[in-house]
């Protein structure tokens, strides 16, 4: 599964704002710091503002800031709100009926479970969980157990 650039920019913007909660930040500053296209980032910030996650202040000394505490921003909700869909293959799109394997295919259900597992991990995390990286891995310490492969091989073999 690959997230869209829009979602990547959304998550990076939230991380940037969480690291600078004491001040307003401009879109231009975030774009420069993260080598993002400002035009694209404007759309991301607009959407974050509409969703109530970010507050915007207009004017000469304006900028953006988190409207919620990092612990109140659920990553699963953010990703669901910024992704247009979670179609991992064409058969996830109800409008597409051109797959010759549709009648006997078990791939769709396997990929649906994988997508659900992905979102379940994100549902258990907030922006605050990403703010204290572990020195050796760069990952937040509380994420490491969740990222470990403990499930064993999938049901029905490999």
Offer a quick outline of the entry:
The protein is mainly alpha-helical and 158 residues long.
For the record, the CATH class is: Mainly Alpha
Give the topology string: H per helix, E per strand.
HHHEEHHH
The assigned structural class equals mainly alpha
Main β-sheet description: 2 strands, antiparallel
Rg over CA atoms? 19 Å
In the CATH hierarchy, the third-tier topology is known as Arc Repressor Mutant, subunit A
| Helicity range | 40-55%
CATH architecture: Orthogonal Bundle
Strand order of the largest sheet: 1-2
Folded structure, characterized:
Helix content is 41%, strand content 5%. The two termini are 19 Å apart. The protein has a single domain, classed as Orthogonal Bundle (Arc Repressor Mutant, subunit A). The longest helix has 17 residues, at 107-123. Helix 2 (27-34) packs across helix 3 and helix 4 (75-82) packs across helix 5. The protein has helices at 5-19, 27-34, 38-50, 75-82, 107-123, 144-147, and strands at residues 54-57, 63-66. The chain has a two-stranded antiparallel ribbon. It is mainly α and 158 residues long. The chain contains six helices and two strands.
Tag the structure with descriptive keywords.
two-stranded antiparallel sheet; mainly alpha; 6 helices; elongated; 158 residues
Spell out the blueprint of helices and strands.
Layout: H1 5-19, H2 27-34, H3 38-50, E1 54-57, E2 63-66, H4 75-82, H5 107-123, H6 144-147
């Amino acid at each position: 599964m690959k997230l869209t650039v829009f979602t990547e920019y959304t998550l990076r913007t939230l991380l940037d704002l969480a690291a600078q909660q004491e001040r307003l930040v401009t879109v231009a500053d975030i774009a420069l710091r993260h080598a993002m296209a400002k035009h694209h980032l404007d759309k991301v910030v607009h959407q974050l503002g509409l969703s109530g996650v970010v507050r915007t202040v207009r004017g000469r000394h304006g900028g953006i800031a988190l409207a919620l505490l990092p612990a109140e921003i659920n990553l699963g909700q953010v990703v669901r709100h910024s992704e247009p869909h979670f179609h991992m293959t064409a058969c996830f799109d109800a409008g597409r009926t051109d797959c010759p394997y549709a009648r006997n295919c078990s791939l769709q259900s396997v990929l649906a479970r994988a997508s659900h597992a992905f979102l379940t991990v994100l549902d258990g995390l907030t922006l605050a969980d990403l703010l204290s990286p572990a020195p050796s891995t760069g990952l937040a310490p509380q994420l490491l157990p969740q990222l470990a492969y403990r499930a064993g091989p999938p049901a029905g073999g490999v």
